[in-house]
Q: What sequence folds into this?
């Protein structure tokens, strides 16, 4: 049974940084593309970024490009979302997602497995 568990969320002031982690179990992690999504109150789930199975390529939403990075440690079955220069509009529940397909996925429907989410709140 595949499980994804996010951690690292919290409250931070605008301009600050947070690093989210997502630990996977029950699956061969190196075969999964890993995505990050977020959902603010009253809004749909929004693509944040994705990293390939090998970790050598990433893609990000325009709203976070240049501020967020994604990395993965296949030996530790963990993917990370480093968030810098945070803005109040980054406030949301952040989810990691996984899928075995190759290539990038930019829509929630392209992911099979989901974590429970972690709250990120950025104060002005």
A:
């Amino acid at each position: 049974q595949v499980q994804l568990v996010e951690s690292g969320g919290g409250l931070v002031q605008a301009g600050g940084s947070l690093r989210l982690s997502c630990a996977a179990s029950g699956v061969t992690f190196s075969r999964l593309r890993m995505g990050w999504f977020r959902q603010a109150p009253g809004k749909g789930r929004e693509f944040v970024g994705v990293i390939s199975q090998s970790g050598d390529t990433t893609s990000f939403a325009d709203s976070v490009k240049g501020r967020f990075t994604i990395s993965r440690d296949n030996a530790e079955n963990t993917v990370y979302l480093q968030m810098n220069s945070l803005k109040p509009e980054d406030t949301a529940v952040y989810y990691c997602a996984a899928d075995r397909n190759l290539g990038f996925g930019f829509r929630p429907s392209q992911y099979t497995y989901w974590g429970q989410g972690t709250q990120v709140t950025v104060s002005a």
Remarks:
- Residues 68 and 83 are 5 Å apart (CA to CA).
